[in-house]
């Protein structure tokens, strides 16, 4: 099953094993609906039931089955927190970054490369596309991104004039 990175364990909270999690989302309230998380560090994975999730502003606190002391919570400090893809609610519009990363990006029939990273700039996101000829920063604008096929892992773009030297990639 596909897993999605949703946060990182920052530190224990209290003495009964509750953990503070740094959420990797713009909506931390999503943690309240989780039934289970996967804690990951290096090659080790632990799948644990979520007993309670508390969200205060942008801070997330989780109580997990089997983590019931401060020492056990301390032992998972720095671990990645993941969830099964089917626990991530669909967006009303748009895509999650993890759905975009790894897509093949095309302009017409020309493969520009693979979308390696979504960069948040404030004004609009930028897609960092890495290909045989180097890196291209593609603005995430409706005028540029013409089609996204999440299932097919393909994005079609129409680059603005002057963004790249067209002959370099063709």
Provide keyphrases for this structure.
170 residues, mainly beta, Elongation Factor Tu (Ef-tu), domain 3, SH3 type barrels, 6-stranded antiparallel barrel, elongated
DSSP E strands, number: 12
Helix segment tally: 3
Summed up, the domain count is 2
In terms of DSSP E residues, the strand content is: over 45%
Terminal CA distance: 37 Å
How many strands, which pairing sense, and closed or not: the largest β-sheet? Answer: 6 strands, antiparallel, barrel
* CATH class annotation of the largest domain: Mainly Beta
The residue fraction in helices comes out at: under 10%
Strand order of the largest sheet: 1-2-5-4-3-6
Rg calc: 20 Å
Report on the structure:
The protein has 170 residues and is mainly β. The chain has two domains: 3-87, RimM (Elongation Factor Tu (Ef-tu), domain 3), CATH 2.40.30; 97-169, PRC-barrel domain (SH3 type barrels, Roll). Helices cover 8% and strands 48% of the residues. The chain contains three helices and twelve strands, in the order βββββαβαββββββα. A six-stranded antiparallel barrel has the order 1-2-5-4-3-6. The chain has a six-stranded mixed sheet with strand order 10-9-8-7-12-11, with no helix packed on it. The radius of gyration is 20 Å and the shape is elongated. The two termini are 37 Å apart.
Question: Could you provide a short overview of the structure?
Answer:
This protein has helices at 70-75, 97-100, 166-169; strands at residues 3-12, 19-23, 36-41, 44-56, 59-64, 80-84, 104-107, 110-120, 125-131, 134-139, 145-149, 154-157. The chain is mainly beta.
């Amino acid at each position: 099953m596909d897993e999605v990175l949703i946060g990182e364990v920052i530190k224990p909270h209290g003495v009964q094993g509750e953990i503070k999690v740094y959420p990797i989302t713009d909506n931390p309230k999503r943690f309240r609906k989780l039934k289970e998380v996967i804690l990951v560090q290096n090659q080790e994975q632990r799948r644990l039931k979520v007993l309670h999730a508390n969200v205060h502003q942008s801070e997330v606190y989780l109580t997990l089955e089997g983590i019931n002391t401060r020492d056990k919570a301390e032992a998972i400090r720095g671990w990645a927190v993941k969830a099964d893809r089917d626990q991530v609610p669909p967006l009303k519009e748009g895509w999650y970054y993890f759905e975009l990363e790894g897509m093949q990006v095309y302009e017409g029939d020309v493969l520009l490369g693979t979308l390696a990273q979504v960069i948040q700039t404030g004004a609009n996101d930028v897609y960092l596309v890495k290909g045989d000829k180097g890196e291209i920063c593609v603005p995430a604008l409706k005028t540029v991104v013409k089609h996204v096929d999440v299932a097919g892992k393909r994005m079609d773009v129409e680059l603005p004039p002057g963004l790249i030297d067209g002959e370099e990639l063709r």
